[in-house]
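Continuing the series of single-chain predictions for the mutant panel. This is the parent chain; the variants come on the following pages.
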Amino acid sequence: MSELVTGEAVALELRPARLPSRALAVLLDLVAAVAVYVVVTIALVAATASLDEAAQTAISIALFVLVLVGGPILVETLSHGRSLGKMACGLRVVRDDGGPIRFRHTLVRGLIGVIEILMTLGVVACIASLVSARGRRLGDVFAGTLVVRERVPVGQTGFVPPPPPWLGGRFSGLDLSAVPDGLWLAVRQYLTRMGQLDPQVGWSMAERLAADLAGRTGAPVPPGVPPAAYLAAVVQERQAREARRAFGHGSAGGGGPVGPAGPAGAYAPPVYPAAAVAPDVRPAAYPPADPGAVVRGERVAPPQEGSSADRPSTGFAPPA
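Parent structure:
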């Protein structure tokens, strides 16, 4: 995964295309171009049979340049970086900042591609792609472009689970300007991988990230909100603001009344395994919380000495 930062300071995670997929795309493009070149050549030979040899040679050279050089440049320009071979392999040419390419980018890639692909049979392009960390050939380096994969298997995509519905619009007033990009990336990576972590490890990691994010925003985590749900809700709020900034002030998600708080789905507190209780330990004697209160993802600590008579009992026993 390659992290690119756009001009709006938005981090993009793009998957650069490697040599096998790029070589297959180039091979398909060459097969299509040669087929068009052969058909057009046969038609021109039949049409220019009455011309002299010099004129036929000039027409052949012009045809070679137009079909094998100008054709790919025109196709990539009109399709914004998707030639026939790249569409078949699920690839696309983009700028270094993740934006769509223009004619100048395809022109530089096409002209240098004549040397490193056609004249050297792809040897120079293969060596440059193997040496480059992002699989770029010389044409990409000089044009400032990158070939990325558009189709990523579903199991490899970084899906950020949405927050619980009762947190919708609850953090619309947070100031997110002081949160660095590194922290946003860490939060997003945790949310996409929290299902693969041990529950206790993931819970402690979410608590640390939530504390760091709350310190940057200046507002503490609301009581009763699980840290993972808090992180997901703040990330959704940031995405909603970016969408409103990019597409206007229309509806971009979030908002609405806030229901009662409660852990749901992947954001519930981890379930700790049962442990043996020593004979001299009496968990039932621990003073529970108030009967009308609900524990929301927080650990209940044992009471201090002499405080058991001040609180009613609900029979809650914390893990040993």
